[in-house]
Amino acid sequence: MTPPIVSTKTLLKSTIVATIIALIVLVVFILPAEYNIDPTHIGHRLGLTALAHHDDEAESKADIIVNAKQGQQVIEVTVPAGKGIEYKFQMAQYEKMTYEWITDGEPLYFDLHGEPQGDTTGYFESYAIATLSAMKGSFTSPFAGSHGWYWKNNSDKPVAIQLIVEGQYEVIGLK
Amino acid sequence: MHSQVLRFTALLFAVALMGMSFDILAHGVDDKTRVFLEQNTGVQFIPFIYIGAKHMFTGYDHILFLVGVIFFLYRSRDVLLYISMFTIGHSITLLWGVLGDIQVNPYLIDAIIGFSVIYKGFDNLGGFKRLLGKQPSTKLAVLIFGLFHGFGLATKLQEFELDSDGLVANMIAFNIGVELGQFMALAFIVIAINFWRKSPSFQRFAITTNTMLMSAGLMLVGLQLTGYYLS
């Protein structure tokens, strides 16, 4: 069985019909449902545009629920002499982070802690408190919220810290 | 004949290159799969086979192209030959795309995949014979479009932001899954088409079916290009 060779007229007709059907289906059904583009307003009347809205919401919800696993990230911060700074990350419950930080030599008092999301009472939970010039470890956030370090520089010189993190988080940064 | 195919391929590659970008566009991956893959690192052989098979089996763009390819192939040997060309093509670019970390814009690559459906529908109508006086090599066309389909598969895998840990094994598992899914889908299509071919309605509806293929391909192109302009 060999493919037919149709007449030019039939070929032209087929191509035009294919294009017209594709355009109608695209404009009336597909674009409203997928992208909320609805020039004819038929998609809206058929309730198809709701699908596009729903998709957007599902996507943004998924973003909140889970942070993508981040590759290694190197962050440099400086704590001014006699001052304290806080560097935080937004994490959902049970998300994991591995970290390593090192100062330029000077030990710093630090408190690695987390604050629950939406909390207004000032409550926080500390995971580690010490005075060190370097630390390495990992933790799983016990609750959704902001997690990170408070470093206090008791010396009279600014101290630079290099922080290397990897895992599931969103950087909030200095607070 | 070949030079026309090659010139055309160069044009398609140029379009794909223009779309190369360094941000991965979220599109086409369901959230449950994404969450699973992002929280599980290392080698996940069976899950990746499953994802590959599911993508191919439910990927109507790949399936439509295959329907077009085997529409007029009634000998099993030809079916095997053409499907092998397609498999070689898409495996090369799937492996190359993921391992070489080549970022092709998924909307543009999916638009080209949609175009492959239009091409095959037009070809089946004898359009090229009518238009150019000669039919471009169908084997070469399957191989070349196979390469583009492979880039499409690579973008799907890259959306998972895969860990380098176990990447090669996972990618091979995904590729095996793709072939399994393709095999399952083809089994249905070949049986259905062979059955239909026995009926006189086949010849009568061949023109309609391939017109519909072209139309579906146009819809895919429109859908993906709109996505591209909006992103």
Automatic annotation (TrEMBL), chain A:
Question: Which residues span the membrane?
Answer: 12-31
Q: List keywords of the entry alphabetically.
A: Membrane, Transmembrane, Transmembrane helix
The organism's superkingdom is given as Bacteria
What is the designated name of this protein? Transmembrane anchor protein
Q: Taxonomic classification, please?
A: Bacteria, Pseudomonadati, Pseudomonadota, Gammaproteobacteria, Alteromonadales
UniProtKB/TrEMBL annotation, chain B:
Q: Does the keyword S-adenosyl-L-methionine apply?
A: no
Keywords assigned: Membrane, Signal, Transmembrane, Transmembrane helix
Residues annotated as transmembrane: 57-74, 79-98, 104-119, 140-157, 169-193, 205-230
The protein's superkingdom reads Bacteria
**Is Signal there in the keyword field?**
yes
The positions making up the signal sequence are 1-26
Q: Which InterPro entries does this chain map to?
A: Put_HupE_UreJ (IPR032809)
Its protein name is Membrane protein
Q: List the source organism.
A: Brumicola pallidula DSM 14239 = ACAM 615
